[in-house]
């Protein structure tokens, strides 16, 4: 994946990066197999601390793998994530979990989050992961979060019974998580939003939610054949750039048709601060 970020002259700079997730197996002979470690933990043969140690080893290995491949902007591989939903939802007050369901129309399954209370952010969720990755990388590290629309769409709502209120509350939660990442030093934050292409008629809600996440002006841009970028933005002090990715596995022509875009516009950037609406 390539991403356009503005340099100090305002000119777009092409950098190489990755979507985020890596397989949860060892990348080479030096690294233990994480799936094996988790299975051993389920049988009581490894402690949670030992499994966390394996996760750390695998994370360091995938970061090294990206650097050796020449990637400019690396991720931690989301090695600690079971999937794109449950890792965040476990740490957000108001969620519980039900059984496994299919992830869109793939052969992948995830444990569906259930909204049974008002959703609230209480403490950083991914900051420790980011700090570990940054400490183990000689290249800049990109933080990755699932966006509010997708997280809401893939959850079972037993509390709000109001899709808009649910999505916007999750946007506020993720705004606080993004601010915590920014405070920890994250210079790039990616929000994954694959669900919007399954519910294109709800794009106005999606757009409003991203306004809550970013609290800034919004625009849609096409960045690469398989990626739609929304709000490639920089904070007023230039410290944090937020790259919003709607989908990373859809042909450009399908994306264009989905949003009525007839031609690819140039990549540009807007400037807006990352802040909480409550503090505004």
> Which residues sit in consecutive blocks of at least 5 with pLDDT less than 50?
2-12, 216-259, 261-280
| C-alpha-based Rg, rounded | 19 Å
What is the overall pLDDT average?
Answer: 74
List the helices and strands in order.
Answer: EEHHHEEHEHEHEHEEEHE
Distance between the termini: 34 Å
DSSP E strands, number: 11
Question: What percentage of the residues does DSSP assign to strands (E)?
Answer: 15-25%
Count of helix runs: 8
Question: Which features would summarize this protein structure in a list?
Answer:
32% helix, 8 helices, alpha/beta, 280 residues, disordered N terminus, six-stranded mixed sheet, three-stranded mixed sheet
Structure description:
This protein has eight helices and eleven strands. Strands 5, 7, 8, 9, 10 and 11 form a six-stranded mixed sheet that branches. A three-stranded mixed sheet has the order 3-4-6, covered by helices on one side. A two-stranded antiparallel sheet has the order 1-2. It has helices at 34-42, 48-68, 86-89, 127-135, 148-153, 163-183, 203-214, 252-258, and strands at 2-6, 12-16, 93-102, 109-120, 142-146, 156-157, 188-192, 220-224, 227-234, 241-245, 270-271. Helix 1 (34-42) packs antiparallel against helix 2. With 280 residues, the chain is an alpha/beta fold. A hairpin with a 6-residue loop joins strand 9 and strand 10. The model is unreliable at 2-12, 216-259 and 261-280 (pLDDT under 50). The two termini are 34 Å apart.
